[in-house]
């Protein structure tokens, strides 16, 4: 029989930032149901510890507005709106898997799409969290030219999350892309200013600046390793920490 959980969670309210690319697994495009089911199970586990969870999901596995604007000449505003709709699709996929796992959820969209999602309202979002529901915040900030990284930083502050957990496919922050540069240096801890000065691709500069100004720490970690989300919540030294 497994040992009962005795270690209390280090954080009580978190914002989990998931990239769209994470959801596609090894497919190269779209949504891998197995990956989404695994994420849903891990979110259920931390919710069962009493942690209040807000999620922000990107849409890069389906459509990336900035890339489309550069490569096809599409109007940037149109492309960004298409990217927002991609995040709604990902949010609905995660909601489906969470509900199947017995987790009450709400998808809240920054653009009105009432047939499938609630409009995002800060007070309502906080109330859902207080009631133990997982909220999945879709459509970024609802504005073009802002990434889902910026949306994650903004929503974390609005709902008073203690920390942003940025789930990635690498085990932290490196001086260069570790998949391309074998001797890239990994940072266990780094300041916001160092991230900006070194031009590290942690989150975009707007998101980092928002976190710096409002003292919201960020942990970047590898979420493809089963159990890592729970380990971060329990305070284990997983990934890289960004703070002042």
Distance between the termini: 42 Å
Quick one: overall form?
A: globular
Work out the number of β strands: 11
Please compute the radius of gyration using only Cα atoms: 17 Å
Our count of domains comes out at: 1
Number of helices: 9
Summing up helix and strand content along with how strands pair, one would put the structural category as alpha/beta
What is the typical, i.e. mean, pLDDT? Answer: 93
Beta-strand residue percentage: 15-25%
User: Please, what is the CATH homologous superfamily?
Assistant: Acetylglutamate kinase-like
The main sheet comes to: 9 strands, mixed
Query: Helix content range of the residues, please?
Result: 25-40%
- Assembly level: single chain
CATH architecture designation:
3-Layer(aba) Sandwich
**The CATH topology:** Carbamate kinase
- Which residues form runs of ≥5 with pLDDT under 50? none
Largest sheet strand order: 4-3-5-2-1-6-10-11-9
Describe this structure in words.
The structure is a single chain. With 244 residues, the chain is of the alpha/beta class. The chain has one domain (13-243): Acetylglutamate kinase-like (Carbamate kinase, 3-Layer(aba) Sandwich), CATH 3.40.1160. Helices cover 39% and strands 19% of the residues. The chain is built from nine helices and eleven strands. The strands form two sheets. Strands 4-3-5-2-1-6-10-11-9 form a nine-stranded mixed beta sheet, sandwiched between helices. Strands 7-8 form a two-stranded antiparallel sheet. Helix 2 packs across helix 4 (76-100). The mean pLDDT is 93.
